[in-house]
Amino acid sequence: MSKPSLARRVADAAEIALTTRKYVTFIDVVTGLRWLHSRHVDLWRQGRAPTLAGLAAVDEDRLAATAALLKDWALAKGLKPVDTPYVAGTRDRRELRFTAGHPQEPFRVHWISPELSEARVRRLTERQSKAPDLVAVAPLESWTCAACGDTGPYLIMEDDRPHCLTCADLDHLVFLPSGNAALSRRAKQESRLAAVVVRYNRRRKVYQRAGLLVEQAALEAAEERCLADEEARERRRDRDRVRRAEQDVEFQARMAAEIARLFPGCPEQRARDIAEHAGQRGSGRVGRTAAARALDENAITLAVIASIRHLDTDYDELLMSGVPRMTARERIKDRIEAKLAEFRGPRARD
User: Fold this and answer.
1) 279 with 290: CB under 8 angstroms?
2) Which of 173, 188, 212, 296 is the most buried (most CB within 10 A)?
């Protein structure tokens, strides 16, 4: 890839993050370029990989070049650099390394928009520099503790090796499953020692939060606090549901308008249906990505392609007949291109 081409791709990925959050990080860019998946970043943040570069699809030199291009772009945009160390979610809280052979500083910088207030910049810096939660993994396969040779339902990484809760001095904690946000938050506040439990989701290929390990007394205190104000929290949840629904309707309307702009030949009702389907909260679809919420042209196009694939081709039938997914996509590629060309043409009537 040529340097101008890489610079353009770096700028596109950075613009999406800046539009969404008012700041940009190196990790935003490399995940936007799809050189790293969020699951790789999770592994690294948990302290289970020596360097982030070891998990990337490109070499360290390409990552260093990307950090330099990000710096050039950010300075040209007038963004403010804030050096922000990354700390592992391990007992030793060691500083994480991005690469083995390059200085770490260029990768750590957060590029902050001048539109962000000093108070928000301060909160952002404090949050990022704060030691992350201890992370315990609920493994899907059998494993052995590096210290005692035993096993257990959870492991925690120390010195890049798995340890059981007993050897990590966490065996006095009890498990609180996810599902009750108020109870989890308060139990963590009450507990002097706590760890987040994650489990790998093979289908989505990411580590997902499964619950917390907290002290028994802390859990009991949190339960009492939750019982005391349950009615008030239920009223607040009702208000929040209404607010989120209004936000979703507004976003889906903007997305439908952008589909109509990019694809004037797409019927209005079809554009609304695509936006509603792709932008459904909690769906994990392309419409819920940061790129789509920034109305990035590529993300919008992917949402339209997904609709065409399922509604205007025999893709689903091919999958049901046992055709491999990538083979099925190759077979319908010409039909998708033809439909995209139709949608890019003059406006159609519903």
Assistant:
1) no
2) 212
- CA–CA gap between residue 150 and residue 145 (Å, rounded): 5
Residue 143 to residues 184, 258, 322: CA-CA distances in angstroms? 28, 50, 35
How far is Cα 202 from Cα 126, in angstroms, rounded to an integer? Answer: 33
Whose CA is closest to 134, among 163, 103, 105? 163
CA dihedral 43, 136, 288, 245 (to 10 degrees): -170
Instruction: Output the pTM of the full model.
Output: 0.58
Q: How far is Cα 282 from Cα 311, in angstroms, rounded to an integer?
A: 22
Residue-level pLDDT at 1: 56
Check whether 331 has a pLDDT greater than 70: yes
Q: If you average pLDDT over residues 196-203, what whole number do you get?
A: 90
Three-state DSSP class for residue 109 = strand
Other Cβ atoms closer than 10 A to 165: 19
The residues, ordered by sequence, that sit 6+ positions from 18 with a Cβ below 8 Å of its Cβ are 24, 77, 79, 111, 113
> pLDDT tens, 116-157?
888 888 887 777 767 678 889 999 999 999 999 999 999 998
Contact 265, 349 (CB under 8 A): no
CA–CA gap between residue 22 and residue 24 (Å, rounded): 7
Give me the pLDDT at residue 122, please: 82
Do the Cβ atoms of 168 and 103 come closer than 8 Å? no
Given a cut of 70, whether residue 158 has pLDDT beyond it is yes
Which tokens go with 162? Answer: 């798995």
- The 3-state DSSP class for residue 350 equals coil
Whether residue 194 contacts residue 207, with contact meaning beta carbons closer than 8 Å, is answered with no
Q: Distance of CA 122 to CAs 10, 118, 127, 298, 347, Å?
A: 26, 6, 9, 33, 49
Calpha distance 66→260 (Å, rounded): 34
